[in-house]
């Protein structure tokens, strides 16, 4: 590889946890072509700051002159235990498109060449559907189950659609004509046969070629574990959260002094703030101190070292992370404020829950309590006590 190809390769490979079959990409770069990479996202819950990871990777891929496609996987949102009901899925796809575009633009990368494809636009074609049937006849039920174990919601009497999900995701590589698929490391079992069978083993069964796979690390959540859309509102930061909400959530986050592992706050610095700072051109993370010069970092290794020594304490780290996140999210929020369409689609994609007003139960004190109106007394007395049998039943069942 010449130095230009090497620089492109390094950008593609940066900040990854795993890169499978890199030789596929190397060959394309040596031939001075543009690798075609796709990232799929099931259009379900509201995207949180964890979406910065794929978005920053997409920004790097665009800079490395890759052809990038974002698959708005509406059908997958529905196949996965109905996480996104069919009637909301279209609006959610538009919401995701706006979010991903704004995320990539927030680090100054042009999105005019970023391609968006809606899953349902090709996953219902006769060719695609026939491939689903062919693959379903060649892949065992247990392999499909294992492949989806970390991605598809696991329930007792799971719907059959959860077994189709991995088959469709694997076929997308072929039908989107990709050289490489990007995903979080949680997608690993869908990507490779080690330890389970999926894309790299299933595609050749239909005569299709094996693709490269690039995997982002998973962010630790603010409560310590992997960040997920199904976390409670306090454990994840929504991209449209106000500065106060961001500060409050980070302040509450689990962040033990000197402990670097599974630390959600440090995970933000490592996986979001540094890669974004590099794309933004300054490459720095600053921590202000009250009585001393600010600490200025240019690598996560230095940050972790100082944190382990308690020179960088949770008390000074947290406000620095809040401030940096708020300024990183500012252009996304400005884009939202400036777009009446986006605001309208938000309401349609995530309709506020209908609150059933609680009607205050008026205690039935009967008609004989002191002060009861005399005229009510008679008819009430004449009526048989309707509640009595239920009350008895409830008592016996206790
Ligand atoms: N499995 C991805 C979504 C996805 C769907 C289809 C694909 O082809 C790729 C990715 C997720 O967890 O969100």
Automatic annotation (TrEMBL):
InterPro entries per the UniProt record, alphabetical: aa-tRNA-synth_Ic (IPR002305), Rossmann-like_a/b/a_fold (IPR014729), Tyr-tRNA-ligase (IPR002307), Tyr-tRNA-ligase_arc/euk-type (IPR023617), Tyr-tRNA_synthase (IPR050489)
GO molecular function: ATP binding; tyrosine-tRNA ligase activity
Bias type Basic and acidic residues, positions: 375-386
GO biological process terms held by the UniProt record: tyrosyl-tRNA aminoacylation
Pfam family, one: tRNA-synt_1b
Keyword annotations from UniProtKB, A to Z: Aminoacyl-tRNA synthetase, ATP-binding, Cytoplasm, Ligase, Nucleotide-binding, Protein biosynthesis
Domain of life: Eukaryota
Localisation: Cytoplasm
GO cellular component: cytoplasm
Main localization (coarse): cytoplasm
The reaction(s) this protein catalyses: tRNA(Tyr) + L-tyrosine + ATP = L-tyrosyl-tRNA(Tyr) + AMP + diphosphate + H(+)
Key word S-adenosyl-L-methionine present: no
Gene3D superfamilies, A to Z: HUPs, Tyrosyl-Transfer RNA Synthetase
Region annotation Disordered: where it falls in the sequence: 358-398
Enzyme class name: ligase
Enzyme Commission numbers on file: 6.1.1.1
Family: Belongs to the class-I aminoacyl-tRNA synthetase family.
Protein name: Tyrosine--tRNA ligase
